[in-house]
Write a structure and sequence with these properties.
The protein is built from 4 helices and no strands. By secondary structure, the protein is mainly alpha-helical. The structure holds fe (ii) ion (2 copies). The site of one fe (ii) ion has 6 residues, from α3 and α4.
């Protein structure tokens, strides 16, 4: 399940759009690695899963910093939504640590398609009017 970027996903702030696009790209790399005809092995999948989960966390932190800087009034609710997903990621990491690498690799792109795509297309859009291109997220 490839994630495909669409211009309507833009939150009006380039560095965050770039992070969202990068999340799609990492997820698509995981799909490619899973579908390799010669058979992906756990050692191919493990680093991509780790990168995807770590990058998602980094993204949430950066996004929340941006919302704080913009004075976005619904930051607490948005943070709570991120936390729910972080809990799901923790469960997936536990599965990977138990050796269920392939199972995680096969559900993660679907999860991102169902969750992340919807999150970017709806929840992330709500701060759009509060940020502007010239803002520094740092
Ligand atoms: Fe986001
Ligand atoms: Fe978000």
């Amino acid at each position: 399940m490839y994630l495909v970027w669409h211009d309507s996903y833009s939150v009006g702030y380039g560095p965050i759009d770039a992070q969202h696009q990068n999340l799609f790209a990492i997820s698509n790399r995981l799909v490619d690695a899973t579908e390799k005809t010669d058979g992906a092995n756990d050692d191919d999948l493990r680093p991509i899963i780790a990168e995807l989960l770590a990058y998602t966390r980094t993204h949430f932190v950066d996004e929340e910093q941006l919302m704080a800087k913009a004075g976005y009034p619904d930051l607490a609710q948005h943070h709570a939504v991120h936390v729910v997903f972080e809990n799901q990621m923790r469960a997936l990491e536990a599965q990977v640590n138990k050796g269920e690498v392939r199972a995680v690799a096969s559900v993660l792109p679907q999860l991102l398609n169902d969750w992340l795509l919807d999150h970017i297309a709806t929840t992330d859009q709500r701060y759009r009017s509060h940020v502007h291109p010239g803002m520094d997220s740092a």
